[in-house]
Specification:
alpha/beta; seven-stranded parallel sheet; six-stranded antiparallel sheet; 21 helices; 24 strands; 17% strand; Epimerase_deHydtase; membrane
Length: 715
C-alpha cells in the first residue's frame, strides 16, 4: 500500500551548459524534483527527460503547455551568438502564453566594467567586449518581459568551472584545454584579477534563490576571493605535469569585473563552499580524459571515413575496370564484334546500364568511354583503318551515340532515385523524431492525468493524507496506537524498517515497543539515553534527528512523540532510500509524529479516566477482561513483527493483597510488561522476550522474593 502513495513533485526545466547541468541535476533530484532538459536530445542521468526543441517552436509550445514548471533555469551564455537574441525572444513569447513559475536567467560579469571595487546589483551596465554587449542586450530583453507577468530574475556569476566542461565554454576551459594539449596560451598581465566559482556552488545558488523566494531583478554570486593571474597560473601549474607554455607575442586580457556576493549572503544565506585550488585537479583530470576520448573518437571517425572512401570512391572505379575487361574478353571470343552471334544483343549496353544504375552518371560515362574505346581498338585491328578513320565510320559512330544515350538515361535515373531516397530518408528521420516527441508528450499527458486521478479518487493530496493518518490513529488504546503508528509511518514515508521505542519512567532508557522489518531484529531492545547525544538533544529540544553524517549504528531518521511537554516515545527509521532524504520527507515525518502525539494524548487521557474500569482500584493490576484484551492487541503486533512473542507467568505470593503485590512488583518489571488477573491468580505479561531473557527476569524476580509458579507462551 505504501508503494501506491503518489506525491506531487516540483519540476524544473534546465537549459544550461553540460557541466552546469551535471551539478544542478543531483541537487534538484535530492529534493525530489522532476528534472527536464531543454536543448538536449538525450542525457546520461536517470529519471531526467530531455527535449531538443532547438528549431521547433511548436514543440517548445507543447512542452510548456503540458508541464507547469515551478522553475526554469536558462543560461544566456550558452553558445552565445547573434542568433541568441531571436532564440530568447521566441522562448519568452512562448513562456508568456503558458502558466510557468520562476524563471532564472544565468548571466556573467562580462556585462560590467572592470573596476577595482566589487560590483553590486545596482552597478550600471557598461562593457567594451563584444560578448559583454550582446549579453547586456539579452539581459535587457529578458527583464523587459517581466512587465508581462513573467517572474524573472537574472543571476550573475563569474567564470564557472566544473567537470564536463567543453573546449569553448569559458576562459578557464579554453586555458585548461590549451595546457592539456601542450599549446601556448597568451601572455596576461600578472596584476589583473578574475574570479572563479565552482559549478556545485552555482547549483546551490540557483536552488536557494528559488527556495528563499528572491524576486529582485539581479543577484550577484562570487567566491569573494578573486585571483590575480599570477595566483591563477601557479594554481594551474601545481596540478599539471609541466609548466604551461606562454606565447609572449600574443597579448591576452585576464581581467574581469569582480562581483560582490554580499546581497546573496544577506537575502538567501548563500556562501561559496569551494575554491579553485581545491577542485582544479579534478577539473584538469576531467579535461585530459575528455581529450583522450575525443582522440579515440577522431581515430574511429578517420577509420570510418577511410572505409567510406574506399567503398564510395575506389570500389566503383575498380568494378568499372573489371566490367570493361569482361567486355573486352566477350568481344574477343565473339570475333571482335560487340554483338553476340547467338543472341543478337550488345552486352556493352548491359555493362553501361549496370554502372549507371548503381553509381550514377560519372561511372556510366566512364563505362561508355571504356566500351567505345574497346570497340575502336578491335575495329582498328580487324578492319585495318586508321584510328581516326574508324571513329568516323557510321556503324561505330552509331554505337557511340547509343552507348552515350544509355549512359545519360541510366545515370539520370540513378541520380534522381538517389535524390528521392535521400529526401525520403531525411523526411523519415524527421518524422521519426517528431513521432517520438509526440509519443513522449502523450505519455507525459497520461502520467499527469493519472496523478490527478489518484489525487481526486484516493485523496492523496495533503488534506487527504492527513485525514488518512488521523483516521488510522483514531483509537483510545495505547498499544493499538503504537501498532498503527508503525504502519502509518511505513506507509507515509514508503519505508520498511521502523522501530518505536518508549521512554522509561526515569527517562534514562528507551525500551523497544514495536518494530517492522527484518533488518531491525538486530537492533538493541534497550537504549541508554546518556550513551547517545542525539537522544539527549531530542529529549531537551524535541527536534527531529537526521543522520546526515551517516554514522554507523544510528537511525537514518528519528522523531519524538511528545505528551504533556515531555518525550514519551521515539520513532526511528532505518535503511532509507537515497531519494527519501529530502525536506519533503522530513516534513511528512514531523507531521506524522505530531499527529501520533495528539492521538496518544487522547488515549492516555481516556486511560486515566477509565482507571477504575480497567484496573483493580489503587493498583496497576488489570482486570481479567482488560488483561485478555491486551493479549489480543498484541496478537495484531505479532502479525506485523517477525519473532514477536508474549509470555505470561503466574506469580506465587500467598497471603498478600493486590495493593501489596503491586507495590512488590512495581519496580521489578519492565515498563512494557503488564500485571493482570486470570482466574484467581495474578499473572505478569512479558512482551517480546526469548527464553534467555525470560530466565534473567525470573532470576531478578526471585531475588526480590517473587516466585513464578507457572509460565506459558500465549503468542
Amino acid at each position: 500500500m505504501a508503494s501506491e502513495i503518489q506525491t506531487i513533485k516540483k519540476s524544473v526545466l534546465i537549459k544550461c551548459a553540460t557541466y552546469i547541468e551535471q551539478s544542478l541535476i543531483p541537487v534538484f533530484q535530492k529534493e525530489n524534483w522532476e528534472v527536464f532538459l531543454l536543448g538536449k536530445k538525450k542525457t546520461d542521468f536517470c529519471n531526467v527527460t530531455a527535449y531538443d526543441c532547438k528549431s521547433d517552436r511548436d514543440a517548445l509550445q507543447q512542452v510548456l503547455s503540458v508541464y507547469h514548471f515551478d522553475l526554469i533555469v536558462y543560461d544566456l551564455r550558452e553558445k552565445i551568438g547573434i542568433q541568441s537574441i531571436a532564440c530568447l525572444e521566441e522562448f519568452l513569447q512562448v513562456a508568456s502564453t503558458r502558466s510557468q513559475g520562476k524563471i532564472l536567467f544565468l548571466s556573467g560579469a562580462d556585462v560590467l566594467e572592470k573596476k577595482r571595487i566589487p560590483a553590486i546589483e545596482t552597478t550600471f551596465v557598461q562593457t567594451e567586449s563584444k560578448e559583454g554587449k550582446l549579453l547586456s542586450r539579452l539581459e535587457a530583453l529578458a527583464l523587459s518581459w517581466k512587465q508581462q507577468g513573467l517572474h524573472i530574475t537574472i543571476l550573475r556569476f563569474p567564470d564557472i568551472y566544473g567537470t564536463g566542461m567543453e573546449r569553448k565554454d569559458n576562459f578557464i576551459s579554453q586555458y585548461l584545454y590549451a595546457c592539456a594539449e601542450n599549446k601556448s596560451v597568451p601572455l596576461y598581465r600578472s596584476d589583473e584579477k578574475r574570479d572563479f566559482l565552482s559549478s556545485q556552488d552555482v547549483a546551490y545558488a540557483i536552488f536557494q534563490t528559488y527556495e528563499r523566494g528572491y524576486i529582485g531583478d539581479y543577484l550577484h554570486f562570487a567566491s569573494g576571493k578573486p585571483l590575480t593571474y599570477d595566483d591563477f597560473y601557479h594554481i594551474v601549474w601545481e596540478n599539471m605535469d609541466k609548466e604551461p607554455k606562454i606565447d609572449s607575442h600574443k597579448q591576452g586580457h585576464f581581467a574581469q569585473a569582480i562581483l560582490d556576493p554580499e546581497q546573496a549572503r544577506k537575502q538567501i544565506g548563500w556562501k561559496a563552499r569551494h575554491s579553485l585550488a581545491e577542485n582544479i585537479a579534478d577539473v584538469y583530470r576531467d579535461v585530459t580524459h575528455t581529450l583522450l576520448f575525443e582522440e579515440k573518437r577522431r581515430q574511429k571517425e578517420r577509420q570510418e571515413q577511410r572505409d567510406k572512401k574506399i567503398k564510395e570512391r575506389i570500389m566503383p572505379y575498380a568494378e568499372n575496370v573489371i566490367g570493361a575487361l569482361l567486355m573486352l574478353w566477350l568481344m574477343q571470343i565473339q570475333g571482335g564484334s560487340s554483338v553476340n552471334p547467338i543472341v543478337p544483343f550488345d552486352f556493352n549496353f548491359l555493362y553501361i546500364a549496370v554502372m549507371g544504375l548503381l553509381y550514377g552518371r560519372r561511372q556510366a560515362f566512364l563505362a561508355v568511354f571504356f566500351s567505345y574505346l574497346i570497340l575502336l581498338v578491335l575495329s582498328f585491328g580487324n578492319l585495318g583503318f586508321g584510328l581516326i578513320a574508324v571513329m568516323y565510320q557510321p556503324a561505330e559512330l552509331l554505337h557511340f551515340l547509343s552507348y552515350l544515350a544509355m549512359g545519360v538515361i541510366t545515370g539520370y535515373i540513378s541520380e534522381q532515385s538517389k535524390f528521392r531516397d535521400d529526401e525520403n530518408r531525411w523526411q523519415h528521420l524527421h518524422d521519426q523524431e517528431r513521432y517520438r516527441f509526440l509519443c513522449h508528450m502523450f505519455k507525459a499527458n497520461v502520467n499527469i492525468k493519472d496523478k490527478m486521478y489518484r489525487q481526486i479518487v484516493n485523496s492523496q493530496d495533503s488534506i487527504g493524507r492527513i485525514y488518512r493518518i488521523v483516521s488510522t490513529l483514531d483509537s483510545v488504546e495505547p498499544e493499538n496506537i503504537y501498532n498503527k503508528t508503525a504502519l502509518v509511518t511505513a506507509e507515509v514515508l514508503d519505508v520498511s524498517q521502523i522501530i518505536i521505542y518508549s521512554v522509561g519512567r526515569d527517562s534514562a532508557y528507551l525500551r523497544q515497543k514495536v518494530r517492522i522489518g527484518d533488518m531491525t531484529e538486530g537492533e538493541p531492545h534497550s537504549l541508554r539515553i546518556d550513551d547517545y547525544p542525539y537522544l539527549q538533544q531530542m529529549m531537551k529540544e524535541h527536534n527531529l534527528f537526521i543522520n546526515r553524517d551517516l554514522i554507523k549504528g544510528l537511525p537514518d531518521l528519528a522523531a519524538p512523540i511528545i505528551y504533556e511537554g515531555r518525550v514519551i516515545a521515539v520513532i526511528q527509521v532505518y535503511q532509507m532510500d537515497f531519494d527519501k532524504w529530502s525536506t519533503f520527507e522530513l516534513n511528512l515525518m514531523a507531521v506524522t509524529s505530531r499527529l501520533v502525539s495528539t492521538s496518544l494524548a487522547r488515549a492516555y487521557t481516556w486511560e486515566q479516566e477509565m482507571m477504575e474500569r480497567r484496573y483493580i482500584p489503587g493498583t496497576r493490576i488489570l482486570k481479567e477482561k482488560e488483561f485478555v484484551h491486551i493479549i489480543e492487541e498484541l496478537r495484531e503486533r505479532h502479525q506485523m513483527q517477525k519473532g514477536y512473542s508474549v509470555t505470561i507467568a503466574r506469580i506465587d505470593l500467598p497471603g498478600m493483597t493486590y495493593k501489596q503485590i503491586d507495590q512488590r512488583l512495581g519496580n521489578q518489571i519492565r515498563l512494557e510488561d503488564y500485571m493482570g488477573i486470570l482466574g484467581d491468580s495474578v499473572w505478569i505479561m512479558f512482551t517480546d522476550v526469548n527464553k534467555q531473557t525470560l530466565a534473567l527476569i525470573q532470576k531478578r524476580l526471585a531475588q526480590g522474593g517473587v516466585l513464578i509458579s507457572e509460565a506459558k507462551e500465549v503468542i
